[in-house]
Amino acid sequence: MTERKDGGPAFPRSDERGLMGEGFREGSDGMALRDWFAGRAMEQLISVWPMTDGHLGDRKAVAKAAYEYADAMLAAREVKP
């Protein structure tokens, strides 16, 4: 099985308990960093993407472009300064 290269969790949350061990809240890995990056890129793409008859053009193309930007951001994180 190949390892997913999604940047890991974007908003991990550890298990939490109150002072007396009450109020247990289960931890969560949250969304993948790749999805977070894609969502942020999509916000900008939608704001500038060519419109057709008042509607966003090819939605699949916008989504694909957003993930291409996300993958580029993940790759940039691997470059050592």
Describe this structure in words.
This protein has helices at residues 33-48, 59-78, and strands spanning 51-52, 55-56. It is flat, with a radius of gyration of 18 Å. The two termini are 31 Å apart. A two-stranded antiparallel sheet has the order 1-2. A hairpin with a 2-residue loop joins β1 (51-52) and β2 (55-56). The chain has a domain at 33-78. The chain is built from two helices and two strands; from the N terminus they run αββα. The model has no long low-confidence stretch (mean pLDDT 79). It is mainly alpha-helical.
| Rg (C-alpha, Å) | 18 Å
Which residue ranges are poorly predicted, with pLDDT under 50 across at least 5 consecutive positions?
none
C-alpha end-to-end distance: 31 Å
Task: Determine the structural class based on helices, strands and strand pairing.
Answer: mainly alpha
How much β-strand is present in the residues? Answer: under 5%
What is the arithmetic mean of pLDDT? 79
Most strands sheet = 2 strands, antiparallel
Q: What order do the strands of the largest sheet run in, or round the barrel if closed? A: 1-2
Number of helices: 2
Q: How many strands in all?
A: 2
Classify the helix fraction into a percent range: 40-55%
Short description:
It is built from 2 helices and 2 strands, in the order H-E-E-H. The chain is mainly alpha-helical and 81 residues long. The model has no long low-confidence stretch (mean pLDDT 79).
